[in-house]
Amino acid sequence: MAEKDTKKGRATIKDVAELAQTSVATVSRVLGDSGYGVTAQLRKRVLAAAEALSYVPSAAAQKLRGGGSRDIGLVIPNITNPFYMQTIQGISAVCYDRNYHIILCNSARSVERERAFLEQLYARQVQGVILSSADEEHSSVADFLSRGMKFVQLDQRFEREECACINYDSELGARMAVRHLAEKGHRRIAFASTPLTRWTRKAVLKGYREEMAEQGFQDEAAGLVFISEPVEAVESGSYEMDAGCSVAQQILERRADVTAVFCVNDMVAFGVIAELRRSGVRIPEDLSVVGFDDIPFAESFMPPITTIRCPSYETGRLAAMMLIDQLGDGSKSLNLNMSLQPILIERQSVRDLRGQAE
């Protein structure tokens, strides 16, 4: 079959019909795997024409035929945070294997942006979204659930049966961090965090307070919680590191007697360490630091950071599988609510004070 010379760009279904010398309706039936009323010879001619023209059916047409799309929305608060970058990799791996496409949206921690993105995804007939929400009230999720959209909430807790959630036992992780510091002889352990606008941060603080009490450090814990100032939408990737710098300044000004700082995540820990160094404080000789998440840079930082590992890549994989299950394209073998266990990773940012005067 002679190849048609199309100089107008992407070939259309009409071009295929003309080259195959048949109707648009027939081409649509053949390419849509509905061969009713089409002879084998004509089918072969249509497929050859489509191949010759490198014809690709439009996504919009496929949605109309299939009643939906193979697009999955992914809305996260900060695409520059390595924790979310690893999560995206896990989601992407599953979506590639299952022939789903990801539409990535960065809410920059803005509830308004988050809702606007969800509206856009709904308008595009996206049937499922993996969401790390900036909205404490989950009002947008409740709204879109009522419209039939499927969700998997990342590192959040939302008490509705129809909304799947995957998170970490953040309270346990915090208790592990404080217990580790206590075992190394620390009592005056500060807590450093960005604003407590997310369930996970509140859970980490709760675990910190519970373990401080369990260790008998209630008096020491008084006045040792340091929270950075709130901000609106955040475009800068340095937001959490900047928050860590700010908190470190507060600690030096108000509680220079602390021997260790437990940070709500590794990015905050990076900022804390950077600011302490600028002030002449040595890590861990003068002050110990523990992070949370175990992002890739935590191991190569100087010093390598002791932290609580949360398996972000595996979280992404499981989130994608949970959503695809809900969309009817999976094994239906996963629970709709999962909590992954944290692991203490010991490195070189904690000094052992046992047998020494603090």
Automatic annotation (TrEMBL):
Record carries keyword DNA-binding: yes
CDD domains registered for this protein in UniProt: HTH_LacI (cd01392), PBP1_LacI_sugar_binding-like (cd06267)
Gene3D superfamilies: 3.40.50.2300, lambda repressor-like DNA-binding domains (1.10.260.40)
Residues of the HTH lacI-type domain: 11-66
One MF annotation (Gene Ontology) recorded for this entry: transcription cis-regulatory region binding
TM region positions: none
UniProt keyword list: DNA-binding, Transcription, Transcription regulation
PROSITE patterns registered for this protein in UniProt: HTH_LACI_2
Entry-linked Pfam families: LacI (PF00356), Peripla_BP_3 (PF13377)
Annotated protein name in UniProt: Transcriptional regulator, LacI family
